[in-house]
Amino acid sequence: MSGRQPCKSDLSDERWALIEPVIASWKAQHPSVSGHRGAYEMREIVNALLYQFRTGCQWDCLPHDLPPAGAVKYYFYKWRDDGTGQTIHDLLRWQVRESRGRKADPSLVVPDAQSLHAATGVLAGTTGRDAAKKVPGRKRGLAVDVLGLVIAVVVPAASAHDNAAGIALLEKVAADTDTVHKALVDQGFKTAVIDHGKKVGIDVEVVERNPAASGFVPQPIRWRVEQVNGILMLHPRLVRDCEHRPASAGSGVYWAISDRMSRMLTATSTPTWRGA
């Protein structure tokens, strides 16, 4: 770590060992035209990404002993656009599932959508207003498995109906894996999502809320997606949508959950606000 003081968000040697092969392969496939190997260690680039999502700081407010914002953004955008960030996430997810005695890919997912306020400066053309929840910004749609691991992320405008988010999630799930055959959704998703599920080979079941229950009552299996939304709140960069492009917001989710899964695989605890 170039002799700097470590941050709580830094990768340990064990966690870096899980990610490094993908990064090393990427570097080998993207050599510099001049033959220069680069001024910054790839581990430090990833540490800077994890620091930003874990603290919520602006790019230009990264600590001076981490690589500069320009270099970190360069790799973040490159890995966002070519799918490297999601590849790292998916490889870790497969390892976590197999370590829990499950097959690499799930057969059931739990989709849900959450509206988030957009930060100042986010492009208006990519946002909208959730009329029901009175939230101006974007929606974050997640599809998770029964372990609470993310299978798909979509980021439409908050004005998009839950059906639109649900359909986009089913499309991404079906495109990324052919093993999912069942999805459990809440009553916010309507017939359009069920019909689209049939088109992509996924049986969509609406989980009815007990009319006698009052307040928030966790529903079997479906509570996992609420758990993931809570985990993402430990990353202030994801508490509201700060990204100019929806694709960056989705990539941020993959990095945050990769951080969590690398800790699961190495039995490392996640820092909490109490320890900050």
Automatic annotation (TrEMBL):
Residues 105-228 form the Transposase IS4-like domain. Residues 11-89 form the Insertion element IS402-like domain. One of its GO terms (molecular function) is DNA binding. InterPro entries: IS402-like_dom, Transposase_11. GO terms for biological process: DNA transposition. This is DDE transposase. It comes from Streptomyces echinoruber.
